[in-house]
Amino acid sequence: MEKGCFKSKIWISVLALLVAMPIFVVALSWLFPEHELWTHFSQNLLPGLISSTVILLIGVGIGVTLLGTILAYLVVMVEFPGRKWLEWALFLPFAIPAYVLAFVYLGVFDYSGYAQVWMREVLGLPGFDIRAGSWAIILTFVLVFYPYVYMMTRASFKRQKINMIEAGKLLGASPLKVFFKISLPLARPAAAAGLLVTLMETLADFGVVSLFNYDTFTTAIYSAWGDFRSIEVAAQLASLLVLVAFFLIYFEKKARGQAKYYSADVSNKKPYHATGIVGWLISLFVFGVFMLSFAMPMLQLVIWGWESAGEEWSAKYFDLIASTSILTVSAALITVAIATVLALPGRCKQGSIWLKGVIRMATLGYALPGSVMAVGLLYGINQISVINIYFGGESINHIIFGSISLLLFAYVSRFMAIAYSSIDASAQQIKPVFTQSARLLGATRLRLIWQVYLPMMTPGILAGGLLVAVDVMKELPATYLLRPFGWDTLAIQVYELSAEGLFERAAVPALIMVLFGAILMSVFQYLDKKSSKTS
């Protein structure tokens, strides 16, 4: 057993460290400091960057946690008018890239946008600057990122035993007390996983903060690289983001402590039925979130797209769709497969500080902006070539640079946290008694994985695969820098058009991306329902 555990630890460690390679490359940037430039950044920019980033993280964290958890609880535990279609519709905002939602809201609610013009001319209200302060950017992030928490907590609420809630009701507990004392504690690991992914997504965002002229670490990273041509300072700033991500993960684990929450039942029975005015108020609230986060932006994109479709649409879009589909499916499958291996329960992982450390290291790449992840990979491959040439070999740059394999490597390293958080949340709910019973019956490790672990981890695997697929579809900087020649994607088309201020034409590829994301979520919904019926 010890020999088998040793081999298992070696393979898991190698796999995790390989995924984390760009992070180590970024960390090595501190060996080549640029003192003058770094002094300028640390003295003049760093204090403001820290405060603005902290405000953004706190605002987005509170917003997505409250909104995502409340929405998930309502659609799972409460029967109200329109619940069935709204439960699925609340997934749809995840298909809209954050930078697309940002330019739509700016186009509508900026001072010259028709919403403010109507407010001033018809209602006589004073105008406002949507870019002033942090409220608008926080609201944008909350509307586009709440599906992370919603998706994971919904899966957790659906697997809670209904008899515990019924027992609370019989004891006279109010719906709020049942929520805070029973349902919420059981769903906390899933909510924390969604929150963690959201905060790392917020840390790494560049498109939204740049459109709102809001300074964060990410904008400073782009400034160090684009304006000052210093990849070292950019990587050093990125390493601070990795450090923040590490503390976020550590804090979440510390807050959870040794608590584990298990569940097995999947029930479609609703313990609460909201009728009359209460039911319609709940329906109005849920529908309002859907309108703000998806329906209204989609309507604006459709209007812009309809006006410019004749000018923008051409046969090249078939190639863009094919390239996007191949990259999305391939990256999602590889990432989920590796994340499943890392998240599988096992006695060899219990108490192993080393394994826990390297696995956590492999999930920190989500805090790196895509551009820095790309440069880290390019820099790392180039250093390997230098070492290989030194020992009499040949450069491997021409083989790897501009290849699909390097781009997929960047996706896997960048989005491992998404897949792992979702799959690990499902793995944490597997009762130890299942493993013990299987081993007493003589089940081998492979049979235990195939017949016990994987079926019970299916909801997390499906959710993780969906999250990775949609994020890969929306990823811009890494794709732009590492894609093979001629491999343009829909995200790149949106970027190139919007960078030129052609928002109406950019609506065409943006609409295709939203449709593509909606198809992915439809597949997820079908598989999720099928999994629930067979559980």
UniProtKB/TrEMBL annotation:
The chain crosses the membrane at residues 12-32, 52-76, 88-112, 132-151, 190-213, 233-251, 272-300, 320-345, 357-379, 399-421, 448-470, 506-527. It is found in: Cell inner membrane. Residues 50-250, 321-524 form the ABC transmembrane type-1 domain. It is a multi-pass membrane protein. InterPro entries: MetI-like (IPR000515), MetI-like_sf (IPR035906). Keywords: Cell inner membrane, Cell membrane, Membrane, Transmembrane, Transmembrane helix, Transport. One of its GO terms (cellular component) is plasma membrane. It holds the Pfam family BPD_transp_1. One of its GO terms (biological process) is transmembrane transport. Its main location: membrane. The keyword Transferase does not apply. This is Ferric iron ABC transporter, permease protein. It comes from hydrothermal vent metagenome.
